[in-house]
Design goal:
With 267 residues, the chain is α+β, with helices and mostly antiparallel strands. The protein has a domain of 104 residues: Alpha-Beta Plaits. The chain contains 6 helices and 16 strands. The strands form 4 sheets. It has a 5-stranded antiparallel beta sheet with strand order 6-5-9-8-7. The longest helix has 23 residues. The protein is globular and about 55 Å long.
Length: 267
């Protein structure tokens, strides 16, 4: 939990520099040499097909992000991606993450209080209304107790529907349906089955936050005020650059295999 929080702080810390680079780096190009890790694929999987699918998703991310010209070449398990009009730091944030989306719910005790953990690992409990965004750090959900500050303990959302149908959350959202509203809010459109799941989950969470994670990093935690019955949750509070970044990754879809950077340079 602390590691995820620090990762978010690291991103927030470099955002001003990234935005400045985007504004003045229109003539630059970034090249990333990425190594595909196929070890997690099932034994009977076609690794070459998975790598090609990954390359296609990288190109889609660059296009949706409205970057410059993009080119991806393959050499075994090595993917070389070059994007014009983009600095290296932006290219890393856009292309390397897998983009795995997950919803989680807070762990609640029998009295309806949310269980939290402070930086020393000590547990404490707060009323749901005392879990709020922390403007000082950018953390979308912090527990503000009496003289205590910490993070909620999150658990995977569990419903009868999830038990019966093990599709990923990404598969329950209409392809390419993520939209940006007012530069700072992301809005997906769930499928019919996904809307049913979302309604079920949010009905049980009225008054509580619903955590949105990408690659195990908390990116938003909207408080559920009423069940979401139309399949269109609003996830707000992003900086415009963050919204564009997640918009591209979520619309292009998650990478089927992890990537690590071997070398990178900017021209």
């Amino acid at each position: 939990m602390i590691a995820r929080f620090k990762s978010r702080l690291a991103l927030l810390a470099i955002l001003p520099a990234i935005v400045a680079a985007m504004a003045c780096g229109g003539g630059s190009s970034a090249t990333l040499t990425l190594v595909a890790d196929t070890s997690s694929l099932p034994p009977d999987s076609d690794s070459a097909e998975a790598i090609q699918q990954t390359a296609d998703i990288l190109l889609a991310r660059a296009e949706i992000f409205d970057a410059g010209d993009a080119e991806v070449t393959l050499d075994g398990d090595t993917i070389t991606a070059t994007v014009s009009g983009m600095d290296r730091e932006v290219a890393q944030l856009l292309l390397i993450p897998r983009g795995l989306l997950e919803f989680r719910q807070p762990v609640v005790n029998d009295l309806g209080f949310i269980i939290c953990v402070d930086q020393n690992g000590a547990e404490f409990m707060v009323h749901p209304l005392r879990v709020n965004p922390d403007s000082a750090t950018g953390n979308p959900a912090r527990c503000f107790g009496e003289g205590q500050l910490g993070d909620p303990v999150w658990a995977a959302t569990s419903t009868i529907f999830v038990v019966l149908d093990e599709r990923s959350l990404h598969e329950l959202i209409e392809p390419g349906s993520w939209q940006i509203e007012n530069e700072t809010t992301l809005v997906p459109r769930f499928t019919t089955d996904g809307s049913r799941l979302l309604n079920e989950v949010t009905t049980t969470l009225v008054g509580f936050p619903l955590a949105v994670f990408i690659d195990d990093l908390l990116i938003g935690a909207p408080r559920i005020r009423r069940p979401i019955t139309d399949g269109r949750p609003f996830i707000s509070g992003f900086a415009p650059f963050q919204a564009r970044l997640y918009h591209a990754q979520l619309n292009a879809g998650p990478l089927p295999i992890p990537l690590t950077e071997a070398t990178a340079h900017t021209e």
